Structure formats: structure tokens, C-alpha cells
Amino acid sequence: MAFLSTKLRPTTSIPSFHNLKRFSTYRDPNPNPLRISFLHVPEGKGGLLPTQNLPNTQADTAYDSPQIQHVGTSGVRTCVGVYFAIDSSRCFVAHINGLINRGLDEKNERLLSYHKELQEQEAAFFRSETRKRLRANAEKHGWDPVVQKSTILKSLLITCPEPRNRALSRMTEAGEVDICDENTGLWIIEGIKDFFDAPDDTIVHEKEGFVVQHPDGKPTMLSYEPEKWPEARVGGEDGMLAQMTSVRDGEPPEMECFRRVEQMRLDGWIIVKDDGWRKRY
Q: Could you point out which of 36, 138, 142, 278 has its C-alpha 20 to 30 Å from the C-alpha of 87?
């Protein structure tokens, strides 16, 4: 999950979901005719993708094929990337972004939760919302998570390099208090597993994306390189939420083999829990 940045740095990274309206397609700075085109799902988007007889939406005789059977996503950090097959010609791909807005404290810093009960309420919200959105997609596109459970679980691919809470501490009037700055990825993953009744040992890959040749090709996982994700705090303006921005430097090495074809006509997969301006201590 990459929070909003007030300025995009000149990297080859995909723009954050807040800037998608400004960038209708991803501009590949080094087009290579030998790279494999894949349908790329950007951050905060997701949905069902057809992969048979699908024309290359950026058709060019310099590129590999008039048909695209590879799908994937990239730039996953605290978000969740997910893929599963519905049948031989359809699959679901999403780059799910979960956000909690608690506002700012008197030091203009993002409010954090000190209370386990509140964290459990937030966890329940993200699990429930994830299940609800998957159910809505199934009803909209005519696939059945029970009837097609075997195909889905066999192909299910989940990635999130940083799904768990990061332990933090902050000084208060009562002294130092241990808190958690929630990464919502863990709760979204639990919602996905709950929806499909997936086994507890379902693998969550600590990778920042994937490219899959649908329906049964071996996935290429995109390496997670934490040192490539420098962070900087952006202060709130006019009451807006203070944020941590994160823009990747460069590309995962595996991307040398692939070329993105952006998919824009997808459902929104940004899940936001807005707690307003209530203080947590």
C-alpha cells in the first residue's frame, strides 16, 4: 500500500492510485520488443479479466503478440495482490489497498490506535468488507465461489511483503506507550481466506507482485527489495491526514522480461475505514 504523495518522483514506478486520472496509461521508458506483454492491474483496482482472444489494447507490430494471456500486478508493499482462476478463459486479479483515517494529533502526527478493542473493530471491518466485495464480484460476473472452489484454491495466489503490524511506541503524558501502526494487509488476507474457506497454511508470498500466464502457467514473482522503498513523512495541510509516502526506486529485476499493458476499466479496490478525528488516547 503506497500512501498519497504530493509529488511524484521521476522513477519508473507506477503512479499511485490518487494519480491514475492524470495517467491514462503507463509509459514504458525502455520499450523492448522481446518483452512479454501482460495485463497490469494498478493499485486500488481489480476485477475479472478475460484472457482468450483478447486483443492487445496497445497493439504495435513491434511487440510480441496480438493476444495477451499474461496477467499481474506490481508495486505491492503493504497492499495485497491476489490472483485466482475462474475457468480457462477468465481470472480475477486485484491490487487491494486498505486505509485507516484517524486524523492528526496536536503534534500534527497521524493518530494511532493504543487500544486492542479498537484494533479488533478495524480488523473485523476489513475482513467483512473484503468478503462483501468478492461476493459482489461473483454475483456481477456469474462465478460461484462454492462450485468453482477447487479451481480457485488450486490457483489462488496472494502476495503482501509487509502484511503484519509494526510495533511502535510513543511518549504520552502517562509515559511511553506501546502501540501498533496497523498494516491492513493482514486483515484483507484473512478476509480472502475466509471467503473461500482456504486452508490455514495457504501461502502468502512476501513479494511485491506477480505475472501469471493464465490459466495454468507458472507465476513469476516480483522480488521485494525494502531498500528500494524510501519513505518520507508528508505533513497535513488544512486538516488533511499526515501521510507516509513511498515511491519505489526502479523496477524489480524480473520486470526486464515483461511489459505492462494497463487495465483501467476495473472495479475500485480501495477499502477505507474513516474514523474521522477522534483521538485514541
A: 36
